[in-house]
């Protein structure tokens, strides 16, 4: 399996395309991930309201969905997942 992180930026989508080509060359699956960062200016014990957490998760899901589409465009025969 090839693992690649994506943050929605052009360089990260280039990395996704590169990883997709590498997975294709290795006949391997590709997994696309995104990490949510903790907001550093908030105390570590802060719990964000549910609607804010939901917004962050929806944004992350959208970024990963776009990266998965890019990977599938570059390497159509690769099993690409985000889970």
Describe how the helices and strands are arranged.
Elements: E1 2-5, H1 10-26, E2 30-33, H2 50-74, E3 80-81
Parallel strand pairs: 1-2, 2-3
Helix pairs in contact: 1-2
Task: Please characterize this protein's 3D structure.
This is Universal stress protein. Pfam families: Usp. With 83 residues, the protein is an alpha/beta fold. It has one domain (2-81): HUPs (Rossmann fold), CATH 3.40.50. Helices cover 51% and strands 12% of the residues. It contains 2 helices and 3 strands; from the N terminus they run E-H-E-H-E. It has helices at residues 10-26, 50-74; strands spanning 2-5, 30-33, 80-81. A 3-stranded parallel beta sheet has the order 1-2-3, with helices on one face. Helix 1 (10-26) packs across helix 2 (50-74). The protein starts with a strand and ends with a strand. The model has no long low-confidence stretch (mean pLDDT 93).
Helix/strand order:
EHEHE
Poorly predicted regions are none
Spatial order of the strands forming the largest sheet: 1-2-3
Architecture in CATH? 3-Layer(aba) Sandwich
Give the helix tally: 2
Distance between the termini: 13 Å
What is the rounded Rg? 15 Å
Q: How many structural domains?
A: 1
Largest sheet: 3 strands, parallel
- Overall pLDDT confidence: 93
Instruction: Report the β-strand fraction as a percent range.
Output: 5-15%
InterPro entries: Rossmann-like_a/b/a_fold, UspA
Domain UspA: 2-67
Organism: Streptomyces pratens
Pfam families: Usp
């Amino acid at each position: 399996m090839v693992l690649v992180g994506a943050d929605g930026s052009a360089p990260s989508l280039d990395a996704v395309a590169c990883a997709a080509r590498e997975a294709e060359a290795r006949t391997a699956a590709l997994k696309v991930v995104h990490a949510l960062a903790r907001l550093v200016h908030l105390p570590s014990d802060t719990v964000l309201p549910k609607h804010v957490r939901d917004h962050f998760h929806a944004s992350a899901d959208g970024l990963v969905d776009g990266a998965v589409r890019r990977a599938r465009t570059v390497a159509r025969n690769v099993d690409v997942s985000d889970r």
